[in-house]
Amino acid sequence: MPTYDYVCDACEHAFEEFQRIDEDVLKKCPECKKNKLRRLFGAGSGLLFKGSGFYETDYRSESYKKRQSEDKKSPGKGDSSSSGGKNKASSEKTGG
């Protein structure tokens, strides 16, 4: 439940009220009892999502998860091709 900021235009009394979202806006000031109360717009706080289902990784397919686990198990998979490219590049620089 959010906390709303209110201010009275008659007596300038300012306060916070803890209300449900679907409750009506307060209109009567608790101090001067006049109907000059106004709800202020504030930055508020961000929404906090808890539990599963809020991240794109929660919906990854089984085939994707399987490939990821296989890639983690074989770290030397791409090492030989990258070193071969370096040797070729160095021989081109020397003119051979």
Please provide a written account of the structure.
A hairpin with a 5-residue loop joins strand 1 (3-8) and strand 2 (14-18). The relative contact order is 0.12. The protein has a domain at 3-40. The protein has helices spanning 62-73, 79-94; strands at residues 3-8, 14-18, 37-40. It is of the alpha+beta class. It contains two helices and three strands. Mean pLDDT is 76; it is low at 80-86. It is rod-shaped. The protein has a three-stranded antiparallel beta sheet with strand order 2-1-3, with no helix packed on it. The longest helix has 16 residues, at 79-94.
SSE topology:
Elements (H helix, E strand, L loop, with lengths): L2 E6 L5 E5 L18 E4 L21 H12 L5 H16 L2
Antiparallel strand pairs: 1-2, 1-3
Notable traits:
96 residues; alpha+beta; 3-stranded antiparallel sheet; 2 helices; 16% strand
What topology, given as strand order, has the largest sheet? Answer: 2-1-3
The count of β-strands is: 3
What's the gyration radius in Å?
32 Å
First and last CA, distance: 74 Å
Give start-end ranges of low-pLDDT stretches.
Answer: 80-86
Biggest sheet, in brief?
Answer: 3 strands, antiparallel
Approximate helicity band: 25-40%
Number of helices, counting only DSSP H or I runs of 4 residues or more: 2
**Class from helix and strand fractions:** alpha+beta
Order of helix and strand elements from N to C terminus? EEEHH
Shape: rod-shaped
Mean residue pLDDT: 76
Bin the strand percentage. 15-25%
